[in-house]
Structure formats: C-alpha cells, structure tokens
C-alpha cells in the first residue's frame, strides 16, 4: 500500500478519514472549507515552484533558501498544525530516504505565519509507527466508528459520518 502525506495528515485528525481515503471515498468537494483551501493553494506563492511530484508525494511549494532545499506545505489555518507537521515530516523523510537533505516550512498565508519543521530521529520512529497504523486501519473491512471531535464541524466527511 502506498502511504502518502495526506494520509499522515488525516491520521492525526481522524482515523475514520484514513479508512475513507484509502477506499477513494473523497470528502464533499463542494464543502466551503475544501473550496477555500483549494483557492488558497492556487493563489499563494505564485513565484515559487508549485505542486512538485516526487514519487508518491506532492510538495505544495519549493522555497529558495540559497543552496538549501526547503519544502513548503501551504495550509489555510494553523488550527491543524500538529497534523500538518507530521505530513511535512513525512515528506522530509521521503526526501531523506532518497538521499536528499531538506528542511520544511508550514505556510499559513492567511495568518501571515510560517513555522519551521525539522525531521529528527525520534520523529522518524514515530512516523514509522504511524505508517504501520495507517496500513492496519486501511486493511480493515469496515471503517472505524465515528468519534465526535473538534474537527467534525468543518469536515468534508461530516454528512457521511453523522447524517
């Protein structure tokens, strides 16, 4: 199974979303939050290289920092910063495994904020644990039960879980 950065993001938000995504059950594409996120991604960081495909991952933007490679992940809000951090660390791990040293930045254009992200050995161990759990969730016959949390109100899967 190809685990990607989006699954790491969902894993840190809601395990049920992981299962749904691995079944190609996509969230409501007309959801206002999804539409706004897409708009923000398309209209920010116009001068940088965007949507760089590398293996099974896609980097939002590559930032110029002299000789050092910096991968940027654009998000509409820092409200999901923990999940975003793990997604970006996964991207850094993919690059490291390919012999490419890089650092990361979470980009919150609406908040005019940036957050540096570095991959540590401790985080690599945690990423591997998450990867194994993502695979375990994906292999289940039925999705995990929905669990009401603070993210449900703005989730594109809200109707699927709570209708």
Mean pLDDT: 85
Give the N-to-C terminal Cα separation: 30 Å
Number of helices: 6
Order of helices and strands: HHHEEEHEEHH
Weakly predicted, low-confidence segments: none
In short:
The protein has 163 residues and is of the alpha+beta class. Helix 1 packs antiparallel against helix 4.
Key attributes of the depicted protein:
5-stranded mixed sheet, about 160 residues, alpha+beta
Protein model, in words:
The chain has 163 residues and is α+β, with helices and mostly antiparallel strands. Helix content is 41%, strand content 21%. It is built from six helices and five strands, in the order αααβββαββαα. It has helices spanning 5-11, 15-22, 32-43, 81-97, 121-138, 158-162, and strands at 49-54, 57-65, 68-74, 102-108, 113-117. A five-stranded mixed beta sheet has the order 1-2-3-4-5, covered by helices on one side. A hairpin with a 4-residue loop joins β4 (102-108) and β5 (113-117). α1 runs antiparallel to α2 and α1 (5-11) packs antiparallel against α4. The longest helix is centred in the last third of the chain and has 18 residues, at 121-138. The protein is globular and about 50 Å long. The two termini are 30 Å apart.
